[in-house]
Amino acid sequence: MKTDIILCGVGGQGILSIAAIIGEAAMNENLYIKQAEVHGMSQRGGDVQSNLRISSEPIASDLIATGQADVIISMEPMEALRYLPYLKKDGWIITSSNPFVNIPNYPDMEVISRDLNKINNVIAFDIDKLAKDNGVPRSANVILLGAAQKALGIEYDKLEAAIRRVFARKGDAIVEANIKALAIGKEAQK
């Protein structure tokens, strides 16, 4: 088993929480994991990106080479396209369709949508709306994770257990909101 994942978005959207959940699930399965993070200036809406490599065999590097990512999980559609050169030909993009317009020359959404539609394996939906409509507005990132579950090759119950461990110190209400968000995302990707 080997899965190379690029997680991306804008500071404050929960990319590093997704990485923590996936990492916890992988380590609990005795898999090898390597992670590299690039933090933008979250106060200014800077980009945040994480390379996450999971394998049943030892991993030499924490960086994903061009054309080698199995999955790109993006909290923001333009960020998904930014990392497109890293995606394998048969790789998956799971992204929010809702833009986070943080720069004056943000591309037109029609252009972004057209570019995403050129890719064979894309799941794109408005995670923010789903989160608000389902009473979990602070868990949009975990909705996206739920939608990515099959592409990641990690069993759903393993991600659920990882959420319980990662968020346990924040209390039962936070844990349950994120478990609910994971289920919403799993259902949305069907």
**In terms of per-residue confidence, which ranges show pLDDT below 50 for 5 or more consecutive residues?**
none
Radius of gyration: 15 Å
**Helix-strand pattern:** EHEEEHEHEHHHH
Count every helix, treating DSSP H or I runs of 4 or more residues as helices. 7
Please tally the β strands and state the result: 6
Helical fraction equals: 40-55%
- Share of residues in strands: 15-25%
What's the arrangement of strands in the largest beta sheet?
A: 2-3-1-4-5-6
Distance between the termini: 24 Å
What general outline do the C-alpha atoms trace? globular
The overall average pLDDT, rounded, is 93
| Helix/strand structural class | alpha/beta
Q: Describe the biggest sheet?
A: 6 strands, mixed
Write a brief caption for the model.
With 190 residues, the chain is of the alpha/beta class. It has seven helices and six strands; from the N terminus they run E-H-E-E-E-H-E-H-E-H-H-H-H. The two termini are 24 Å apart.
Q: What does this protein look like?
A:
Helix 5 (about 140-150) crosses helix 7. The two termini are about 25 Å apart. The protein is globular. Helix content is about 40%, strand content about 25%. It has a six-stranded mixed beta sheet. It has helices at about 15-30, 75-80, 110-115, 125-135, 140-150, 155-165, 170-190, and strands spanning about 1-10, 30-40, 45-55, 70-75, 85-95, 120-125. The mean pLDDT is about 95. The protein is α/β, with parallel strands linked by helices. Helix 3 links the parallel strand 5 and strand 6 (about 120-125).
